[in-house]
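I'm stuck. Please check this protein.
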Amino acid sequence: MGAVCFFVFLSNYVTVSLSPILISIITDFNISVNQAGYLITLNLLFLGLGNLFWIPLSERIGKRPVLIACALTYFVCSIWAAVAKTYGTFLGARIMQGFGASASEALGPAVVADLYFVHERGLFMSIYLLIFTVGVSLGGIWSGLIASSTPNWHWVLWHDTILTGFMFLVIVLFAPETNFKRPPENESGEGMPLPDLVNLRKRVKFSWIRSLSVTTWYDREFSIWWLWWRPWLTLRLPAVWFCIITYGVSLGWQIIQATANGVIFPAIYNFSPQGVGNISCAYLVASFVGCAAGGPFLDWLTRYITKRRGGYFVPEYRLWAMIPPSVVFPIGLLMYGGGLEHHLNYMIPIVGSAIGYAVLCVVPSVGMTYVVDCYRPLSGETMTMVTAAKNTFGFALSFAVFPWLERDGYFKASGIQVLIQAILFLTTIPMYIYGARLRQWTSKFLI
């Protein structure tokens, strides 16, 4: 789990590491602000779409070989980005970086589902999301420091390359296979003689050397074409769409801010690259606050409601945790847009953006844990589609960020964001009321 979390950390660290140096990139490559934004948004898009290739492959040949292949691709493409001499080459490297890193996002929740019980998933899903958001925060902080203390901005990319190379070694050495198939007839223990039941308590010896194998899993039951098709079938499940739209809109607004900060704060507040990077310090604090609310609090709230309702657990109980982000997210968006529009103290838009980062921990923790609870046997397929679709959704919202902000202004754009967010978050109410009936109705669609 730790190796996968490190991969998730770096996948987001490298994505946003360009934000503090966008002005330098624009100058060196002689490109427009919008073209510079594509270096982040297209990376984000393929960070999601790549899952549609990698995750079904992991169901066929195992998670470990896929993680190794992805980590190697990520490392090689980081070298490519560091030596790129033209904008087109650099953009191609960034796209392939996203493709190589993509499996880490969906495999994280799938590994949580493999290793942990239902009452533990909220906590560990929150830890996974904390690593996700800390990567975003530290990517901005460190790249700003590196850009300010080195001769040119390419050192940021070489720093990314060193980290991805180290991560490749960590994956090779410390990421064992987690796919398993328990014999159905032995799951309940019925019909088994007593000695066999006793033997189940003995620890199975599994050495570190044995864990290095990449051939411990191979699924011959389904064809690879069927495995690639299965994630698309999960789009028939309402819970999957709920997770996609709530997670996607939360991510989209934060990508807009992360992309725009590298240009807007130097223009309005005369921030240096290091100053732009230091904005992420607020995001780092917000990450811990949000993930504490989305992890331990989510599990406690679910246990409390379950106890009050007679001890019978229903996945919809997790949706109560959507109330706080639904209230504070609009406040953060308006603080960000209003602060920039009226040139208020720089702390106002920074705090507003940090509120959004806290929400970005809570919302996916609720949504993804809810989906896993509803469809545990399909956790791999559902997380694949959630990751691919929410990144596509976030990309669509943030693709034309600079033309949008230039046309409508910061505050009006924030108002539109609040309206869209409110409409999408209100889907929590029908999901809570009708979720159980929708699961029963869509049970015939299960793969």
